[in-house]
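Render this sequence as a predicted structure.
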Amino acid sequence: MNKPSPDLQLLGALALELTPGTGASRVALAQGDAGALAQRVAQDLAGFADEANALQLVTVGAHYDVVELLRPGWPLHRELDQLAARAPGDAAGRVIAFGTHDAKLPGALTPQDEYAGGPLRLVPFVLGGDADIATRVGDAFERDLMERGMAGAATALLAQEAFGLQVEHARYLTLHDLAAMMAMQYEHAGLAPLWPILEAALLAPDDEEWLEQAPEPVVHYIGREARIALFTPQAWRERYAPEAAHETDGECDKLERAFEFFQARQRQFAAVLEAHGIPVTFVHCDAAHDAHAEL
C-alpha cells in the first residue's frame, strides 16, 4: 500500500472508539475548547517522536466518520492545510486549531450529518514543516502508532467531556493505518473484493483497476470514477449462470432471486464507493461478454 500524498506531509487522526449504543452531544467545539484539545494532541504526538515539536500541527475541534477522511485527495486534511496556510507567521512548532464561530466551522470542515453516529469517530490532524524532520517523524509514526499510539488519559478525558462522548479507547493513527484498518473491516463485512478499487482511488487515483471476480459485479475504476456494468437479466444469466440455459420453473425462480441479490450487491458497492467520495457511473451492457469493452 502506498503512502498518502507527500505534499501534505503527515496526515493522521485521533481515533475515538465509543461505548456501544452511545452518541455525541456535540460534533464541533468552540475555538477555546478546540485549542485546548489541540495542545493535548501536540503533547501526545511529541511523546511518540520528539521532533514532532518542531513541526506545525493543524487540527479541528470536530469529529468525523472514517469515510469522511478516506476520500481521494484527502479533502478534509487538505482543507485543514489550506486554511492553516492563511495564518501569518513562522509555522515551525506552531499549533493551529479550528473551532466554531457563531456555531459554524470554517471552510468545508463541517461533519456530514449522514455519517454521524458511528462507533468510531476521528479528529483529523496534519503535521508539516521541514521535510527532513517530517520524514523522520513520519517513519516513526508509520512504524509505531498502530502498536503504541494510545492517547494520553488527559487527552481522552478532555475529548470525552468536550464532545459529550463515552470513549472506550482513544488512540492515534496515520491515514495509512486507518486505510489498513478499513480494509480489514470491509473484509469482515464481506466487501473484500471491492477494496482494490477503493485502494486505487485513495492511493493511486490516476491508476486503473478492475473487479471482474464472479459472482461479484463488474467494476472498472478509470478516470477517477468507478464504472459499474448493468446487465440485462439475459446477459447476467449468460455471464454468471451459463449452465442454466434450460432451467425448470423452480430453477427459474431461483435465478430470479439470484439476479435480485446481484442487483442489491451492485447498489451496495455503489453506496460504499460514493460514501468515500468516488463518483459512480452505471453502464448498460446488453451482451454478457461485452462488459470489458463497454466499461
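Summary. Confidence is low (pLDDT under 50) at residues 1-6. The beta strands are 10-18, 56-60, 95-98, 120-128, 167-174, 209-211, 219-222, 225-231, 280-285.
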